[in-house]
Amino acid sequence: MKRFTQVLGAGVLALAFGAISGNAVAEKVTLGVSIPTATHGFTGGIVWWAGEAKKELEKKYPDLKVIIKTAGGAPEQANQLQDLVTVNKINALVIFPFESASLTQPVSQVKSKGVYVTVVDRGLTDTRAQDAYVAGDNTAFGKIPGEYIGKTLGGKGNVVALRGIPTTLDNERYEAFQTALKATPDVKILDAKYANWNRDDAFKVTQDFLTRFKHIDAIWAADDDMAVGVLKALDQAKRTDVKIVFGGAGAKGAIKTLMDGSDKRIQANVSYSPKFIYDAIKLTAEARLKGEALPAKTIIPSVLITKENAKQFYFPNSPF
Amino acid sequence: MQPAHTETGSTRPSLQRMLRHVSSLGPVLGLIVLCIAGTWLNPDFATLDNMMNVLTRTAFIGIIAVGMTFVIISGGIDLSVGSMAALIAGSMIFLMNKLVLAGTLSPLAIVLTGIALALLLGAAFGAIHGLLITKGRIEPFIVTLGTLGIFRAYLTYLADGGALTLDTALNDLYAPVYYASLLGIPVPIWVFLIVAALGTIILNRTAFGRHVQAIGSNEQVARYAAIRVDLVKIVTYMFLGLCVGIATVLYVPRLGSATPTTGILWELEAIAAVVVGGTALKGGEGRVIGTVIGAILLSVISNILNLTSIISVYLNAAVQGFVIIIVAFLQRSRH
Question: How far apart are CA B159 and CA A39, in angstroms?
Answer without folding.
Answer: 11
